[in-house]
Amino acid sequence: MTTGTLTEALVEFPDNRLLIDLCGQFDSNLTAVESRLGVQILRRGNQLVVMGEPSAQDEAVSILQALYERLEQGKTVEPGDIDREFRMTPPEPEMDEKGDQLEMFSGGKVEIKTRKKLVEPRTDAQKAYVQALFSNELAFGIGPAGTGKTYLAVAVGVNMFINGEVDKIILSRPAVEAGEKLGYLPGDMKDKVDPYMQPLYDALNDFLPGKQLGKMIEEKVIEIAPLAFMRGRTLSNAFVVLDEAQNATSMQMKMFLTRLGEGSRMVVTGDRTQIDLPRGVPSGLADAERLLNRIPKISFNYFTASDVVRHPLVAAIIDAYEKDESTP
After folding, report:
1. How far apart are CA 37 and CA 17, in angstroms?
2. I want to staple 310 with a disulfide (CB 3.0 to 4.6 A). Which of 4, 40, 146, 243 is the partner?
């Protein structure tokens, strides 16, 4: 039905229980779609009526149908899932070098299974990044805070460990002081260093039950250590993540990358706008980009403010700073 320039579409959902979940508590999910697209959604029995401009109305119908399909598959619909549907382009089957469809991406969607949750990329850049993590022995993820670089890398590491593709997970960061000297912090070395490693612990807690995570750390199946602790080691059959790599010096970056052993995967993540190295000390991340970007089987994936999946204000803040830096 059409009224002026507004279009009215009627969408039927056969399972009324799933429709309740689709609408959300107090119709919060419908409200989220309405506010993003400027449409109005009304419920009539087991049907939803979508009213709005033709293009917005069509997009709303497509998003509602996609979310309902998630519920049919036994998944949940959370705010992040709604956000994903707005950000992602329609899925297409992924092919390998021989033109065969990659099994894990066979549905066109990327899903990372961990012990506690199913992790799904929420932007096209995140999807390409996850595919690169599974496809390359060395992958770089570069972009601003809040774009999921470290979170997705740790999720992939947990997935590969669960599937027996690696024997251990090693997570590292440069312990660069940002205003407070390590020596002045209370406690032993672990107590001094752990605050720098906390984001890595937070990610692991999202993917592994607490008792299992504690046991794996105790048995050194999972290691979380400052970058300096990597010197002299050969890391074989491991999934290795270097986080905050913009704070590694050129020598530290070279040292880390040459730790790669047989059967291992490495991921390097960083944000070029948040370098805490002393003035005049070049970032090893920038050197790695310059020297390695043409080597086969090394991938570089880049994120922008549009890939931020934290609070919407984070993207706006990043945009503001980027515009200020680009102003003469």
Report:
1. 25
2. 146
